[in-house]
Amino acid sequence: MKQIKITTEFIKLDQLMKFADMVDSGGEAKMLIAQGLVLVNGEICTQRGKKIRPGDEVEFDGQNYQII
After folding, report:
1. Which pLDDT belongs to residue 5?
2. Which end of the chain is more exposed for a tag (fewer CB within 10 A), N or C?
3. Is 2-67 CATH 3.10.290.10?
4. CA angle in degrees (0–180, nearest 5) for 35-39-18
5. What are the boundaries of the signal sequence (predicted)?
6. How do the residues of the chain divide into helix, strand and coil, expressed in percent and rounded to 5?
């Protein structure tokens, strides 16, 4: 599991995917989230603006990311 450190209270899911280099662009992140290909805390998330906070886990493309 990869750890992603954020220095704010939260980060939006699409911004996190770009920040963590899961995707090349914000547009790509929005498309993948809308298609239901991203899991947050084990559940499919289709909200690109979902607030991700330390302690949350994001899964995409077979990789797990823990937000710290």
Report:
1. 97
2. N
3. yes
4. 75
5. none
6. 25, 30, 45
The model's pLDDT over 28-49, given as tens digits with 9 standing for 90+, comes to: 999 999 999 999 999 999 999 9
Phi and psi torsions of 55, nearest 5°: 100, -20
Q: pTM score, two decimals?
A: 0.92
Strand partners, 60: 38, 63
In the chain, where the domains are located:
2-67
Q: Strands (DSSP E) along the chain, which ranges?
A: 2-4, 11-12, 38-40, 43-44, 51-52, 57-60, 63-67
**Cα 14 vs. chain centroid, distance in angstroms?**
6
